[in-house]
Amino acid sequence: MKNRVFMYLFIFTLLLVLFQYINSKSIIEDYDKNLKTAENRVEVYSDSISMLKDKISDLSQFDLNYSDDAISFFQDNGIDSEKLMPVVKDALLSMNMQDGDTHPIIPYPGGNGNRMLLNSVKFLNHKWLIADFSDGTLWGEILIGYSIDENNDIKFKEIETLLYPYQRY
């Protein structure tokens, strides 16, 4: 009788160990599968981050915020470029409010009774900025030179303009 109890206990223990082994094996396989999936995601995300860093580097190539030489130019003249950019931008966009049929810096007249207006501005360096303009139908881009004189007056000069051909959609 005692032998039978030990035999049943042994069989029960063996079944319990076998169950634990199979269960642990499936858990480890699931864990490995999830780990490989996560590693693949990390690789894809790392590639995406690398591509985005390259794109940021390309886009910041002509940007006053990332041009050490342009920032140094302003610093050498005692000007804070972070404070200057909004002032220059506001001065340029305030030209949109001036009276008249034509814009003071955009050489093209508007069509359909509308006036050309500047929309957005991007600083290229300490001397130039680029802006886009539109009258609602026609649009274009303008390269503008800017300077600050001794009296801290901002002067703008049109360097080049581009008017895109009219397109119907």
From TrEMBL:
GO terms for molecular function: hydrolase activity. This is Hydrolase. Residues 28-55 form a coiled coil. Keywords: Coiled coil, Hydrolase.
